[in-house]
Amino acid sequence: MLNTPPFEIKQGAIYKLSISIQDNWWCKNGNIKRKDIQNLDKLLIDAMFEKFGADDCQVFTTFIDKIPKGGVYDESIKPHTYIELEELKAQADLKEKRRRK
User: Fold this and answer.
1) Please, what is the end-to-end C-alpha distance for the chain in angstroms?
2) pLDDT greater at residue 58 or residue 100
3) Domain count, the chain
C-alpha cells in the first residue's frame, strides 16, 4: 500500500517527480550490485497517480537516483524510497505565456 500525505494533483498543472532510492548497492566483494531501478519508475508513477486519481501525463520531468550510503557492503542498510512531487506550472500559465509570444 502506498502511504501518502494529504495531497491533491491539480488538473492542468505539470509536475517534476524526484525519486531517491536507498539500498545496499554493493556486493560483499566490493563490486556494485546489478540492480536496475530505471525499470521500476513506471510502476511507481502509475501507482502514485492511481492513488491520487490523476493522470501521470502531468509529469514532465522525472529524476531518479540511487543513494550511495556508505560506499561499501553493509547489511544494516534497509531499502527506502524518498519521493518528491513538485508543481512546475499550471497549464493556464503556460497557455498565457504562449499567447504573449
Assistant:
1) 45
2) 58
3) 1
